[in-house]
Every structure is written in C-alpha cells, then in structure tokens.
C-alpha cells in the first residue's frame, strides 16, 4: 500500500470527521476540543506551543492515522521526572528548545497518542506512524528529544519495545464501585477519613453558600468571567499565571456544551465564589476534572469542591471514574487513588539520553532505566 504523510500546524486543515474516527471517544482528542484551544489564541511561539499534527494517508487520500503533536519552548513545569534532566541538559548544553511531544496541550489526561482509523490494524499502523514521526521530527527543528506524554501502562510497554525510555509519575483517580449513594461510599472509608469528610463538609457549608451544578448553556458568560478570575487568583497565590486564557475556557464550554459541568458555590447575591470545571464523556462514562477556582479563600470550601463534590456527582450520575490529572496529595488524603501515568522518551542526543537514564536509575535506586 502506498502511504504518504503530512504535517499540519492547524487542526482547521484536518477534516473533523476523519480525525474523530481515528481519535475515538476521548474528549480531549476530539477535533472540537483542539479547535477550541486553537481559536482562543492558546497556541503560538510566544505561548511556547506550536501544534504539529502528523497525518498518515493512503493513495486515495483517506486518513489512516494521526497524532496530536506540538513543538514546545521554554517551560518544564509540566514534565514530571523529565524536568530534572531537562534542567541539567540545558545547563550543560545537551538540550536545546524546542522539544517535540505528542499529547494534549496543557491537559495531562491519560489517553492514546497514536490515533488509528478503526478499520486499520492498530499495531501495524501505529508502527508505521511512529516511523513517520522519527523521520519528520528532525526536520521540524527539534534537535534533542521526542516525548509521548501521559499514556497508560500497556502503551508504555509497547513504546519501550520500540526503543523508548519510560518515566512515570502519579495520577489522581477515583473509581465508582457501584455505590448506591454518597453515604454508601463513605461507609467504605476508614473512621478517620469519614470524620475528616464530615468536619470539612460542615466547615464548607458553614459559610452559607449555595452549592449548584451548572451544565452546558447554563454556564453563563458572567459565571465564566468569575470562574476565570477566581482561577487567576488561585494561580497568583502560588506565584503563577494561568496557562490558558479565558477565551480557551469559553471556547471549550461552548464547543463541548453537552459535556461541560461547573460544580460551584454561590453567595446570597448569586455571586460565584468557588468551583471547578469538568467534562463528562458519555461514551467512556468518565468525568474529567479541569482547573479549579476560588474568588475568596474560605476555610475548607475549595477542598469540598475539589475532593468531595465530584465524587457526589459521579455516584449520582453513575459515572464509572473521575480523572483529575496529575497526583495531588490533598486528594490522596481524602480517599482518591494514585496510579502511575507514563511518558515515553526518544533521544537524538546520546549525551542527554545517558543523563536521563542516570537520573531515572538514581531516583528508583535501580541499576537500569526500565520501569516495568
């Protein structure tokens, strides 16, 4: 079969139906989601991200497979264990920006990265797509390293067989074990955790706020503005700026309104005070938590919104899992599980590869870099 590949810098240049057939049901890989980020001004050299979508076609221009890639500059705060060797690599002149990676821009959600049309043989087509990536990446000006970010254990094993160095970090997840009610779930926790829940829920409710669940078009422009301001204030408390603009959140909510939830507390004047956004995939029946927001720091209110209210929602709506992104100790202390999420790394610099291998081996007190 004669195959050809293309690289596009805009998802607008890719047929939405063809892309979504390959992407499957994962919300963060949908054409609409990527387009929402792009049309919000999220990407660009000044933002440190330029998309590079790799597309594999047959002779009849049918899309067989694709991959959401990007060139990244100047930030290492999203890379977990990789941050250690990137810092040292920069200092020693072994690593130079940009780097190339496959993944969802700004969202550390686990999922496939080599997206294959359902009528194609998955493993064979993935191998072909991966080889195409090895060819094209050096031409894109990424001289040091190629990453595939936030994958599961099975994908990590397959990429390790393809020569990748594997690293991992923690992901915060909650599973619905067919709980009848929130009270039914609480009975499964230790006495200490139940006591903690009761104390923290009582403290949150003591502020006199009204808890609401808003969906889709009920997440109004006024709420979006307040949510974003609260998110900005949370970031500022930690000395950071939001990664995404308000336009990004607005576009995500508008383009994915059938999936969008806002779990929030409002005061007696109907003012948004604290909350978190989430997207529910009906096909996967998974609830994905996005960033949280707090206009005013009130005792235990944020903990209730971030740790407990999503669980209440998942049980009520019979969702099977909540994926809240990278590991958070405050969730771990409140009944959430921490599971590994993996990253695969290929190096164009032997010296950088040796440095990465050394750091991973030291961190695991192992003689090798293998993580399985």
Question: Brief overview, please?
Answer:
The chain is α+β, with helices and mostly antiparallel strands.
Write a structural description.
- With 372 residues, this protein is an alpha+beta fold.
- The protein folds into 2 domains: 3-170 and 340-364, Aminopeptidase; 177-319, 3-Layer(aba) Sandwich (Aminopeptidase).
- Helix content is 36%, strand content 27%.
- The chain is built from 12 helices and 13 strands.
- It has helices spanning 16-23, 31-39, 82-91, 122-136, 153-161, 182-186, 191-205, 221-237, 246-255, 301-317, 329-332, 350-364, and strands at residues 3-8, 49-58, 63-72, 99-102, 115-116, 145-151, 165-175, 210-215, 260-266, 272-281, 286-294, 321-326, 337-347.
- Strands 1, 2, 3, 4, 5, 6, 7, 8, 9, 10, 11, 12 and 13 form a 13-stranded mixed beta sheet that branches.
- Strand 11 (286-294), helix 10 and strand 12 form a beta-alpha-beta unit.
- It is globular, with a radius of gyration of 21 Å.
- It starts with a strand and ends in an 8-residue tail after the last helix.
